[in-house]
Design goal:
mainly alpha; Arc Repressor Mutant, subunit A; Four Helix Bundle (Hemerythrin (Met), subunit A); two-stranded antiparallel ribbon; 10 helices; 3% strand; elongated
Length: 230
C-alpha cells in the first residue's frame, strides 16, 4: 500500500485498514499486525494510525487492547446508499456540517430565547419516543429539525440559506447514522448534551458538543473526516 498525497491521512489509514481486513479475510478475534508494522505498511505516522484505530474502535470494527494488540471485532457498515455521490461525497457533507453547525451552535447559545429552548426540548423528547418505537424515518426528520432550529437561532442567514437550499442533502446525511439501529439512541443522547450546553448559554461547550455529535454520527455511518485538529 502507498500513502496518499498529504490530505486526510487518518481517513486514508482507516480505509486502508478496512481494505486490509477484507482483502486478507481477517475474522473476528484475529490479531492485526503490530501498530509499528501497520504504520510502516501504510506509510503513515503512528499518530495518524492511532487516530484511525480509534475511529475503527468507535465503529466496533476493531478492539485495541493495550499491551496485547489490535483485534478484529466485527465488520463495519458498508455499502450505504448515498444518492448525491456525483455532486458531493457523504464525507464532505459531514465535514461541512462539522464546521458550519458547530459555529452556529456556539452563536445560538448566546442568543437562544426561552421559547426556542422549549421547542428544542420538545424535539428531543419526541425523538426519544420515535426511537423507542423504532420509527427511524421520523427520528431522522426530527434530527434535521433540531439542527435547523439551532441554525435559525444562530441568526446567521447565510448559513441558514446553505442548509435550506440543499435540504435534501443535509437530510440524507442525518438519515445515514440510523443504518445501525442498535446505536440509534446515541443520537438522542448527543442531542441532550447539546441541549444542556445551550440551556446554560455556554457557547464554547455548545460548539464542542455539536461538533462531537456530527463526528460521532459520521462514524456510526462508517465515515471518518479530517478537521484542523487532526
Amino acid at each position: 500500500m502507498h500513502a496518499p498525497a498529504p490530505r486526510a491521512v487518518p481517513e486514508y489509514a482507516l480505509q486502508a485498514i478496512r481494505k486490509l481486513i477484507a482483502d486478507e479475510d481477517y475474522r473476528p478475534g484475529d490479531a492485526l499486525p503490530s501498530q509499528r508494522d501497520l504504520a510502516e505498511r501504510l506509510g503513515v505516522s503512528r499518530t495518524s494510525l492511532r487516530e484511525a484505530l480509534s475511529s475503527l474502535s468507535a465503529l466496533g470494527m476493531v478492539s485495541v487492547q493495550p499491551g496485547k494488540g489490535v483485534f478484529v471485532q466485527a465488520a463495519a457498515p458498508t455499502g450505504f446508499a448515498w444518492p448525491f455521490a456525483e455532486q458531493v461525497s457523504a464525507a464532505d457533507t459531514f465535514q461541512l456540517r462539522f464546521a458550519l453547525e458547530g459555529f452556529a451552535c456556539g452563536l445560538a447559545a448566546a442568543t437562544l430565547t426561552a421559547a426556542e429552548l422549549d421547542a428544542l426540548q420538545d424535539n428531543v423528547e419526541q425523538m426519544r419516543l420515535e426511537l423507542r418505537g423504532g420509527d427511524f424515518d421520523s427520528a431522522s426528520r426530527l434530527d434535521f429539525d433540531f439542527h435547523r432550529r439551532i441554525l435559525l437561532a444562530s441568526g446567521n442567514q447565510a448559513m441558514c440559506g446553505i442548509v435550506t437550499s440543499r435540504a435534501d442533502i443535509f437530510l440524507e446525511s442525518q438519515k445515514l447514522p440510523f443504518i445501525r439501529p442498535e446505536r440509534a439512541m446515541e443520537t438522542w443522547q448527543e442531542h441532550r448534551k447539546i441541549l444542556k450546553a445551550l440551556g446554560r448559554h455556554a457557547s464554547g461547550p455548545a460548539q464542542k458538543a455539536m461538533q462531537q455529535h456530527i463526528r460521532a454520527a459520521a462514524l456510526r455511518t462508517g465515515i471518518a473526516f479530517v478537521t484542523l485538529g487532526d
